[in-house]
Amino acid sequence: MRRWVARHEVALYLVLAYLISWSIWPLVLINPDSSPLVPFGPGLAAVIVASVAGGRRELFGLLRQLGRWRAGPGWYGVALGVPLTVAAAAFGVAVVSGAQVPRWEPSDVLQVAGSLVVTVVIVGLFEELGWRGFLLPRLQRARTALVAALLVGLVWLPWHLPELVSDRGERPLAPFVIYILATSVILAWLYNNTQASLPIVILFHAAFNTFTKFFLSGLRGSHYIVAWWTLAGLVALLALAVVAYAGSQNLSRGQTKPVYEPAEAPAA
Q: How far apart are alpha carbons 36 and 197 in whole angstroms?
């Protein structure tokens, strides 16, 4: 069974990630205020498939990426600074278009910091262990890094379907599609340039969620849509800049592949 799982690990991973994550979606019919998505689905699916396909060695290789926090300070600056700047710029465009500026209090800084910590664990850790820690390296085996990143984005996007259906106004669909695909490219660039450092990837993901929610949650109507289109456009421009700078082959100018290399699937 281990050989069969290893040969079909990507397909099995995706099935498990979706099944686990979508398992509580029907509960929304009972309690509309409940979450329609299990956030740890991608991470748990990665642990299960890696364990069955490659045993302890493959599992430890997967989890070891979580300890690669010794990236340069500049990468931590990117992981926090880019999401903050982009979300603030999107909010600024909404204000220019006529949105009111909310009254922020000093205590909001602590709330944002607390939200970031929670999001790192609940969203970043559980998602990125699967999407970038497990899936991306396997897709990069026989594809360019850009194609692999876009493929991850294409399966990451519909994974959000329960949230998109349950709260249709939270994430406008068209800009959200652009945002997800472009973010997937940037996350692959971060992963490939930091020796497969999942802490950097997790921090970037969590920071974008946190700062976007902070700056955009008070906007309404057309101002909210303007902010989301600005957000998506800026992230798309950043993704294009990354590809132009680092190249589509590896999304990295300094190395050909990340340090973490999953075991090859056995021949049929």
A: 29
